[in-house]
Amino acid sequence: MAAQNAVTNAFLEKIPFRGAVAKRFEELFDFPKVSGPMRVGDLYFIWKNSGLQNQAVINVRKGLDGEDRVFIDPNQLDPAGTTTYSPIGVSTDDRYMAVGVNKAGAIWRGYHGL
After folding, report:
1. Per-domain boundaries in the chain
2. pLDDT (tens digit per residue) in 44-64
3. From start to end of 21-96, where are the E strands?
4. Which among 79, 89, 93 is positioned nearest to 112, based on CA atoms?
5. For residues 10 and 7, what is the distance between their CA atoms, to the nearest angstrom?
6. Fewest C-beta atoms under 10 Å: which of 45, 46, 50, 85?
7. Among 66, 68, 70, 44, which residue's Cα sits nearest to residue 57?
8. pTM, full prediction
C-alpha cells in the first residue's frame, strides 16, 4: 500500500493546477448538510455536517420538535476522521441499538450495542 501511494503521489504532485482544483472542491463542499431523519420509537436520529467535517455528527431528538443532542460525534472519537458509525438495527422494544463501526475506511465492520 505504501509503495502504491508513493507512486500515485509522485504522479499527482506534478499536476500544476492540483492546488486550484482542491481549493475549488473545498469551496463547493463547504456548506451545511442534513440527512433525513431515522425514527426509532419516539426518537429521531439526524446526521449533520457543518460543511467540511470529515464525518457527519449523529444527533438525536425526542419527537419531531425536540431539541437535537449529539448521539455520536465520529470527529471527536477519531480526530483523524476516518471512522464511521452507522446505526444498523434496533430491538423490538426500541430500547437497544446496534451500531456498525468502520475504521480507517475498512470494509470490515465491528458492531456495538448501545
Report:
1. 1-30, 31-113
2. 999 999 999 999 999 999 999
3. 33-34, 38-40, 43-49, 57-62, 69-72, 84-90
4. 89
5. 5
6. 50
7. 70
8. 0.77
